[in-house]
Amino acid sequence: MNSVPLLDRNETHPATHARNRLADCHVNASAMLLHRAHRERRMSMGLQPLVRGLPGIKITGPANRRVAGLATDSRRVMAEGLFFALPGRRTDGYHYIEEAVGRGATVVVCEKDCWVPPKVTLVQVPDIRAAVAQMAARFHKQPESKLQLTGFLGTSGKTVAANLLHHFRKERQPSGLIGTLSYAVGNRSLPAHRTTPEPVEMYALLHQIHDCGLERAILEVSAHGIDQGRVAGLPFQTLALLNLTPEHLDYHGSHEACCELEAGFIAAQGKHLRHLVAGIDDAEVRERIERMELPSRTRLLSFGLAEEATFRATEVRYSEKDTRFTLHWPEGKLKLVSPLIGEFNLQNVLAALAAGYADGLTVEEMGAALLSFNGVPGRMERLEEGQSFTILTDYMHTEAAYEKGLRMVRSLTKGRLLTVFGCGGDRDPRKRPVVTRIVAEQSDLALATADNPRSEELSSIFEHMREGNEGRDNLRFLADRRSAIAEALAEARPGDTVLIAGKGHERFQEYADCVVPFDDRAVVREILRNREWRNR
């Protein structure tokens, strides 16, 4: 048995495989559950109907194969399986054909001419990512045509808004959920290993959601997922565009390219799209929507604090415990209480309310359900251990998220704001000094520490973070994240807020040669409980 952990080789360099053992437990679990579902349903399909009509196709070898399963990772190939040799940014599935064949693949799909054993059928296609989406949909009996799909797009807020809508629907219109934290399939919750999975897994999940008797599915749609064709062919009835701020510029090249990508995806939905939900308080979203020519059957539902918003919040009162506001929508107005704090979470609530309204839920029933929403792990999550100060953890990792998040927490803090943060390795170094400046300016004490260094030396990351931030008396650098958290908690006094930013829900820390268990929330609880025990 190959001991290499399950990683998507189309996105990750082989040299980094060893450090992902813990993170890949999520991948492994999802893969095993999906494979078990395949076996239980005894799914298989002939190769010819699977590839019929694909443009520019060339088949070498026996074409009368039965295909028992699809895989884009050679380690997930099953007997009589089909392996897609996807090209990636850092490596190429072409290099793993031999391993896939050794694990039972009898069909290989590739863009280039390549050698395969005589017993294996080679299928060449000009656009393999388009082929993956079409073949996965066919193999899983076109589940997208049997479900009503709602998608959340944008730089930030997708996870909170999607989980909130899933919560709203729980009683009257239960739905599946495919997102950053988990894949909710009926009464089961599978561990998620990426926000928007590859089509092979995406269509398998949609198939299972339909098999559970559900008629709706909610998806978080990442810009990476759009660019790599992971949502190709999915007809969304409702799309919500939350915001458009700079992120992953090392991947997309520019903010403009990322915005064009998301706007193009919306436009490509054409006649399928019944409702477009848009956050018009975001200037970039407003501009894109104004320039977009929507089909006549598509209704635009805007949300925000702007007076012209379809779903508008007024008389807003923020506190460290909740947010209270009056909601205005086409049929009336209603006073609501949200357990989520801050303006950006109010925007997420408005997005979920508008999307639920688009899909047939009433504002009154969503407003009642809002009170029982427990929040999302690692998204401005409050930690309570009887301490006299506030502790929050959040996944913020972009400049815009830090700017909004720190400003919001600062406004709700009666005492001092103490922030623990870091910048991830193998990511855009240009944002590191910017994030550091934002944190130092908004915080009374800024403790810079390790996030996920990955293959970069922490000293190099710190060097980038220090650029332009020399001489700040409130900025300290501590290599060990546990020590940084402990120092912040030791410094905190009644009325202060300790914000631990950057990792949120993550339960591991990535280094060059290993992955170690590390959960900010667990570390906080351990430190506070030990302190309480020592003080008895």
Shape descriptor = globular
The stretches of 5 or more residues where confidence is low (pLDDT under 50) are 1-27
- CATH architectural grouping of the largest domain: 3-Layer(aba) Sandwich
Helix count equals 17
Note the gap between the termini.
Answer: 51 Å
Can you give a write-up of this model?
The protein has 17 helices and 26 strands. Helix 5 packs across helix 11, helix 5 (158-169) packs across helix 12 and helix 13 (399-412) runs parallel beside helix 14 (431-442). An eleven-stranded mixed sheet has the order 11-10-9-12-8-13-14-15-16-17-18, with helices on both faces. A six-stranded mixed sheet has the order 19-20-24-21-22-23, sandwiched between helices. It has a five-stranded mixed sheet with strand order 2-7-6-5-4. It is globular and about 75 Å long. It is an alpha/beta fold and 536 residues long. The chain has three domains: 14-139, Udp-n-acetylmuramoylalanyl-d-glutamate--2,6- Diaminopimelate Ligase, Chain: A, domain 1; 143-370, Mur-like, catalytic domain (UDP-N-acetylmuramoyl-L-alanine:D-glutamate ligase, 3-Layer(aba) Sandwich); 381-534, Alpha-Beta Complex (Protein-Tyrosine Phosphatase, Chain A).
